[in-house]
Task: inverse folding
């Protein structure tokens, strides 16, 4: 029987430590118009580098897209090993396409490579997709409801 690789030496810092943006400027669950919960399963080979890369993406979204979106990165503590989660807070759901387009720009990738270099990590992966198990990404959309805002609780078909 093959032994499981050792747990990563990478510790995920608290969400507020992910970026250099004043707290009053960061979107969060109470002021966002929509929240995307994105999860992905890292391949064991990339368990540390993938976390550094994922944290770098959260920093990039929050710092470079301030006012449009913010993002926090979490490591699953109970459940599936090496599953990570991002909470992407948006002004409104229609901003998601813009956030994804900006995240795919070459500047974003260079930011991520720089974050990995600073963290003392390197990877032989040439794309984001190589670090994750095929088909493991899942996204859920959460639309906050504020009582007294937006009408009734009834839905129409």
Result:
């Amino acid at each position: 029987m093959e032994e499981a690789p050792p747990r990563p030496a990478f510790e995920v810092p608290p969400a507020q430590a992910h970026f250099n943006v004043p707290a009053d400027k960061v979107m969060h669950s109470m002021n966002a118009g929509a929240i995307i919960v994105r999860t992905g399963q890292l391949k064991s080979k990339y368990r540390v580098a993938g976390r550094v890369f994922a944290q770098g993406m959260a920093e990039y979204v929050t710092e470079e897209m301030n006012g449009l979106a913010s993002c926090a990165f979490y490591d699953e503590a109970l459940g599936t090993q090496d599953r990570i989660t991002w909470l992407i807070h948006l002004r409104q759901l229609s901003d998601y396409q813009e956030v994804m387009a900006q995240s795919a720009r070459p500047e974003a990738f260079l930011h991520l490579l720089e974050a990995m270099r600073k963290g003392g990590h390197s990877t032989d992966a040439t794309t984001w997709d190589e670090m994750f198990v095929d088909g493991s990404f899942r996204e859920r959309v959460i639309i906050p409801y504020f009582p007294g805002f937006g009408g009734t609780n009834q839905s129409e078909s």
